[in-house]
Design goal:
The chain has 15 helices and 14 strands. It is of the alpha+beta class and 412 residues long. Helix 1 packs parallel to helix 11.
């Protein structure tokens, strides 16, 4: 290969690495519970680590850190003290990791992946595997990429293999994907002179440490893509209801969503419970009370809540056991899952909607007959103002100066 060809190949590899890192940035930006503005620093660190191609010669016999600066995320999530309290005594690594898992300290566990001791790294990776928090996937991915090499030595190679395999298992459990890349081949000789080719498609277990990084990045983008909702902000007081208990605290805000939401995304009767963030705190949400708004953010799933034994908190009534009918018709007794809490829609951007913008409810009302003006009268054709193309219908709506909605029916 000529010198110019080598330069061209190197340039293409660097561009590919940068594009992949840019995809990871978007996911990391939205993946964290500490919110997007401050996680941008970690995203930039992810870009830098992505561009580094660590060779076995440079890696030596140890493991590399994630390459991410998680200090700000530890600060925002209130987990800095948890991380700093992590022991340096290898005898208590497992104990401290167990404590972090029980208290769901995701970012502290992610930070332990930067520990100098490989045993601590392995325990932390196992803790993240057990916790299965989607927010940890970008850090797991960064750690996997930074340690995507083999090391020498019997013990060192074994520990490094366990670490890489645990990182992969954690990502597979969280994403639900099979991450062994296709197209890998290894030739073995079970008997002298009789080669046997093992393919990753047929025996993925043989390639337990290899990861399809692009597949993880694609999952991150689809999982944490920001969503835009429109509706009216409503303040609600505390009541003895599942919705209020899920919202937590005293008064809370919900968004009466214009669009029709699937049942599994609804967290309030009118639509969704609005969750504050570092970018949009609770006092900012209060300024939009009673107003129609446009919000950007992401849906957050509820988490099982088990109160402490000495807690006097009022909770939804959950039966001690449930009786189901088994396959053979005999009753099966099971323990119900704990109720879910803290679901809703985390707001990362909010703005007041244009006063002239009709809601979908107003559009449906127009279709049903209110302010409906069928095609024909000259007044409908000469309306001035803003036009709206409603994707759910085959009509075009125009707002007149009087504020009424006029419908120009267009047959399909």
């Amino acid at each position: 290969m000529s010198f110019s060809e080598r330069i061209g190949c190197r340039f293409i590899r660097r561009i590919s690495a940068f594009v992949a890192a840019l995809m990871l940035t978007t996911a990391l930006l939205a993946a964290t519970n500490a919110d997007d503005i401050d996680s941008l620093r970690a995203a930039r660190q992810a870009i830098a680590s992505e561009a580094v191609k660590m060779s076995p010669a440079k890696a030596g016999f140890g493991q590399q850190a994630t390459g991410l600066d998680l200090s700000r995320l530890l600060e925002l999530s209130g987990q800095r003290e948890d991380y700093e309290a992590f022991t340096d005594d290898h005898r208590y690594f497992q104990r401290d990791v167990k404590s972090l898992v029980e208290r769901r300290r995701t970012w502290a566990l992610c930070a332990v992946l930067d520990h100098e001791n490989v045993d601590a790294k392995i325990y932390a990776a196992r803790g993240l595997l057990e916790l299965a928090d989607p927010a940890s996937v970008p850090v797991l991915l960064a750690a996997s990429k930074r340690n995507n090499y083999f090391v020498c030595g019997s013990e060192g190679a074994t520990l490094h293999s366990i670490y890489r395999g645990t990182l992969k298992s954690a990502m597979e459990k969280i994403t639900g994907l099979k991450l062994t890349p296709g197209g890998l081949r290894v030739t073995t000789y079970p008997e002298p002179g009789r080669p046997k080719v093992i393919r990753s498609e047929d025996c993925p277990a043989y390639f337990a440490e290899e990861i399809d990084f692009a597949k993880v990045a694609k999952w991150l983008q689809s999982k944490f893509r920001l969503t835009t909702l429109r509706g009216k902000v409503i303040e609600k007081p505390w009541t003895k209801s599942i919705e209020s208990w899920n919202a937590g605290g005293s008064e809370y805000y919900v968004l009466a969503v214009d669009d029709v939401l699937p049942a599994d995304l609804r967290s309030a009767k009118e639509g969704v419970v609005l969750r504050p963030s570092t970018v949009v705190p609770f006092d900012v949400l209060s300024k939009f009370k009673g107003k129609r708004v446009v919000v950007k953010g992401r849906f957050v799933e509820g988490k099982p809540y088990v109160p402490p034994a000495d807690s006097f908190m009022q909770m939804p009534v959950v039966p001690d056991v449930i009786i189901l009918e088994g396959p053979d018709g005999a009753p099966v007794i099971e323990k119900p899952d704990p109720p879910l809490r803290d679901s809703g829609f985390k707001v990362l951007k909010i703005s007041q909607a244009e006063a002239s913008e009709p809601s979908q409810a107003e559009v449906i009302a127009a279709v049903k007959g209110q302010f409906l003006l069928k095609e024909g009268p000259s007044g409908a054709k000469k309306t001035s103002g803003r036009d709206y193309q409603i994707p759910f219908f085959s009509e075009k709506f125009a707002e007149t100066k009087s504020g009424k909605l006029l419908c120009h029916v267009r047959r399909r």
